[in-house]
């Protein structure tokens, strides 16, 4: 394949894992709506950062996903959210960890990025920052769905997967890349636990010189392998995007036995998707053809 740019391109995921049968259609509709939303930003000449924020925001608002409204509950029955975003143009990055009562964590992460200075804010400091930049808190119950409340009440310690984390990667008309990820984390997680989705290089990475990636799955394993950056380094070694994604997930499987998935773009906008789980709903729009393509 030639190395010409295919931009603009946007690719989104709705989390790796086994999806409850009654959620499969809702997840598919959700990633479709999100990819169209992100695409509209790109088509209007918006930046890759704008596109990934718009796509992820829509998935955070969709209760079928484990991000924003619909997020899973921690051991104490509370929602604590992680999110991050990165601009491949200049390596600017912003992230928040273990925040409560924020409906759109990706927007807060973007505000952290745009404020400059800190890359990652957590807990009370993140809350104060949100207030300072005018991002309003919601009541905690506004984010809790009946499904997640019921699941929390019946979950056992050995069945604590997240499933439904969301993420997006995009290449804009200017040839710039961005990535964003947002999650409620793992069900029954320890209060204060922060996963890969808040960590640059682990759940999210974007560099115009390399590519852009968003991960999902067991956060502890993804952190140990710095999976997003690792996958992009495979691109640098000359792997094709699909092969780089597969190699990254293969390495995680071999080294940790954990479950994960990844979406990525190389710097020309070619896509890579891999998972070692039963499902990971993904949708993509590329090549100036506004019809979404689906990958399950
Ligand atoms: N990676 C997320 C976390 O560990 C969960 C997921 O993607 O399902 O917080």
Q: The biggest beta sheet, please? A: 8 strands, mixed
Under CATH at level 1, the class stands as Alpha Beta
How helical, in percent, are the residues?
A: 25-40%
Instruction: Give the distance, in angstroms, between the N- and C-terminal Cα atoms.
Output: 24 Å
Number of strands: 12
Indicate how many domains the architecture comprises: 1
Widest sheet: strand ordering: 4-3-2-6-5-1-11-12
Helix-strand pattern? EHHEEHEHHEEEEHHHEEEE
In one word, what is the shape?
globular
Contiguous runs where pLDDT drops below 50 for at least 5 residues: none
Radius of gyration, taken over Cα atoms and rounded to an integer in Å: 17 Å
Q: Percent of residues in beta strands?
A: 25-35%
Count of discrete alpha- or pi-helical segments spanning 4 or more residues: 8
- Average pLDDT reading: 94
CATH names the topology as Glutamine Phosphoribosylpyrophosphate, subunit 1, domain 1
What is the CATH-assigned architecture?
Answer: 4-Layer Sandwich
Secondary structure category = alpha+beta
